[in-house]
## 1
Amino acid sequence: LRGEFFANPRADDGLARALAWGAAGEAGAVVRALPGYAPTPLLSLPALAAELGVERLWVKDESKRFGLKAFKALGALYALHAFLNRDPAPGRGPAVFVAASAGNHGRGLAWAARRLGHRAVVYLSEGTAAARVEAIRGEGAEIVLVPGDYDDAVRQAAADAARRGWAVISDTAYEGYEEIPRWISQGYAVLFDEALEQLGLGGEGGGRGAEAIAPTLVMLQAGVGGLACGGAMLLRARLRDPRPALVCVEPTSAACLLASARHPRGEATSVACSATSMAGLCCGTPSTIAWPLLRAACDAFMAVDDDYAREAMRALARGRGGDPAVVAGASGAAGLAGLIALCREPSLAGARALLPPRGARVLLINTEGDTDPEQYRAAVGGRDDEGGAP
Ligand SMILES: Cc1ncc(COP(=O)(O)O)c(C=O)c1O
């Protein structure tokens, strides 16, 4: 089984809209006011769309975000801004912000702290790819390498922060820690706001342009669900006619949202997560703020194997048939991986009947570029015009 699909029996748009805690409003203003800000490109890939048999295919290319190769700084930037509004830095010295990270969140946090004149300390598993460690250090953060895995890094970061009075900026929520992850998801929502604007569907509060073509299917890759939550929140609030189907995509080896959807009462469910090339999605426990919203907002939950991610990376890299070439890391390509599986996986015929890709207008988010260049080269190869055709 290389791909799984579960139609969500609890999808409820009214509830999703009621649960959504605000659109990208303030976060959008904060992000757009940053000197040097520019929206990331929204690319149209007609040749790949034709190969897959979908009507349109757009990729919002977050590998271009702030020169950081991933979308994550959107969340950290807004969270630090909101945090400092609530708790201004004591005295004249810089505040210290701490996070554990698989790589991208730490880099985003380090960058945002520096842009706002503060310090960041980032805790990483000692197994983290060297390129990711160096990229975070390059943003001026102090790095702490922790023996063990990501969860060990989380525990160590929390313990050290409590002892030293540092502020933890985590991208996942748990009981008693929800305000900051909510700000982070609101920051992520800004990328969806940009995408709607680029599609001619009006920005925040804006109208619908004459040329507007709305997506009918949006693939949202997820680790703890913070990104998918930001997207679902904005898209359910703003797109009603047509109403896009929202599909959450996870790696098979870390599909905690899929497991939660399958839970008899739809309760958040943890899974043991084993290694996947989709490092940014390797999370075993849903965020407590993301899950209730995704449970109401998503039409389906999918899981795909690393093989599909690799194939999606290659399809994006080749830029065949006049399509622009897109540099997507494994987590970045996960939305396309889910789409390819939905179009083709033999065991998903039932899913295709429920959610026919044929004729769909699909929006994907390339959430990261080659954040691990070695892995990227190994997946895509020196030449990208052989094989891997979907
Ligand atoms: C590249 C990339 N894509 C997607 C995600 C998923 O975000 P979330 O954990 O909020 O679901 C992450 C998380 O770190 C990531 O790094």
Note: Residues 70, 72, 102, 104-105, 171, 221-228, 280-281, 283, 331-332, 367-368 surround pyridoxal-5'-phosphate (CB under 6 Å).
## 2
Amino acid sequence: VIDTHTHSHHSPDGKAPMAAMVAAAKAAGLTGIAFTEHAEWYPGDEAYGFLDLPAYFAELERVRDRHGDTLSILAGVELGNPHDFPNAVSAMLDRWPFDLVIGSVHWLDDRAGWEPPIFLERGIEATYQRYFEVLLRMVEDADFDVLGHLDLVRRDSWDLFQQVLDLDPYQGMIDSVLQRLIESERGLEVNTSALRKGLTSPVPGLAILRRYRQLGGEIVVLGSDGHQPAHVAHGFDAAQDLIRAAGFTRVARFSRRQVVDWISL
Ligand SMILES: [Zn+2]
Ligand SMILES: [Zn+2]
């Protein structure tokens, strides 16, 4: 399979050159890797203004020249709250030849969602509620190909407080998110970073994957959200079992922002 969500040193929280991530992908037996660097527009974000796309594409071309015959190396980006910055997003997506664009909610009402204050001020339940409201707005308004870490709030509340809430109260909003993705032929990412952080299932887990399938969803990709070589393909065996358990027999392969092929699981 392809690891469709990784960060190299072109993201502020990634440290590795692309070549090191590529070597890890090959060692893990992957057929491809996507470099989906952070693009953020809230000035308080550490990624604000960080991504240098000319340098990113220059390095990507170098690793493609060396390894492109043995590994698919996809140009990607992870847009943070793209619905809040539509003009900047469309300028970026019009200009650069991305293979895969991930849409992610990282900010809630001018606060970074993974930081304690928002949970402490509002309480965990209200933070979950707001997260899913913002998520639905993003899926309705923004241009992207694959939804990143659908229930990220679960990973963050675990990370901060070793607590995760049952998602039943938010199921209506989650269903709307899934329906919008399906109608617009966009995909759902299974993000294994939660396993690194001690959760027992990826984000999203089996229940949401099953629901996506039940509603008619087909486009699934698998990403580690790795920020260093050791993270590449982390937890993929378990995640593939989970994707199969939800009724999928294949994952999607993207190129130039389209599903061009399927990879059997
Ligand atoms: Zn993210
Ligand atoms: Zn990421």
Note: The pocket of zinc ion (ligand 2) is lined by residues 5, 7, 78, 225 (CB under 6 Å).
## 3
Amino acid sequence: MSKEKLATALSKQPQAELLLFPTPIHRLRNMEEELSYDGIYIKRDDLTGLGPGGKKLRSLEFILGDALAAGADTIIVHGPGQSNLCAAAAAASAKLGLRCIAVHNAEKSAQYEGNLLLNKMLGLESHFLGKVTQGERERYAAELTEKLRAEGRALYEIKKGGTTGLGILGYAKLALELVDQCEAQRLPIKTLFVPVGNGGLAGLVYGNALLGKPFDIVMISVEYSRSELSAYMRACIAEAEEILQLPFGQPLEDAVTILDTYRGEGWGRNTPESEEAVRRMPKREGIFIENIYNSKVWVGLEGCIRQRKDWGAVCYLHSGGFSSLFGQMKFD
Ligand SMILES: Cc1ncc(COP(=O)(O)O)c(C=O)c1O
């Protein structure tokens, strides 16, 4: 499919203008030298340009575009205390003049640090439920929604961490951005290394497939097994197909390689290698990466290029989350 056809289909969806496009791409020369590999690029989606930045703003463009089109005046978002999505939603809501309420399955901490500090400055209204399950958090949010609706608020809930058919369209748009950028800057990028929590980057897989697979995509899972993720991603892509009316038309495994071998004990738990990567990247490249997503993707990228040399020029998607570092790192 042509770029124009995908761009036209995407442009028909309501979008809130939040990002600075395109985010920069540059080489990581010191890492190239360290790994004896020619062509390691980084796509700086940490620099999306609003609030704490990060890739979540891409899904929020479509989700909040939909909220505005529906006449919403209040956004409800869920997540852990240091959630990057909650901070990004707070910043986007501030820009769009919306009230934003977050429901956290976390204890209210004595100190505002990391994203909690930014959330406060962004005017986010936070409800801390303590250590409850995701189900309990969702029930609380549903009750709160009812209560606020009864008070006359027009509510819009951001579901599933923004990883829905609508939310992933932001990353289908990223596929277009990458193709345009590679053409304009004559970048020889062949393989993309990207993070996957609950599957938001399925949109990149979808967009890339619609464009005839200009890139090979390697997803590094930080939480779920390959089979669990494949199921989530297929469901999101099916919703996106329904919205855009553009068929994906191929088995998921032909469109992406999902590696679930770098997650260690799962979400929020560093492996020794990922912990080391968080400390090494700033010293080698002057760039901060956080513990949960970007560190494990970097370890995955290194592992892959140590095993094989035929990936072509690779590009590491820095998905942001810098602000959560302040709540994550402790030094004596
Ligand atoms: C910085 C960062 N990178 C990557 C991800 C993964 O996104 P997803 O859960 O949509 O796969 C997240 C999710 O919160 C994130 O905050």
Note: Residues 226-244 form the longest helix (19 residues).
